[in-house]
Amino acid sequence: MESITASSEGLRAAMTQAAADIDEALDILIPRPEGPEAKLFEAMRYAAIGGGKRLRGFLVLEGARQFGVARDPALRTAAAIEMLHAYSLVHDDLPCMDDDDLRRGKPTLHKAFDEATAVLAGDALQANAFYVLAEPDTHSDSYVRAELCRCLARASGPRGMCGGQMLDMLAEEAGEPLEEAEIGRLQLLKTGKLIEFAAEAGAILGKAPLQMRHAFAAYGRDLGAAFQIADDLLDATVSAEEAGKRTGKDAEAGKATLVGLLGIPRARAHAERLAAQAAAHLDALGERADLLRALADYAIARRT
Question: Which CATH topology does 2-301 take?
Answer without folding.
Answer: Farnesyl Diphosphate Synthase (1.10.600)
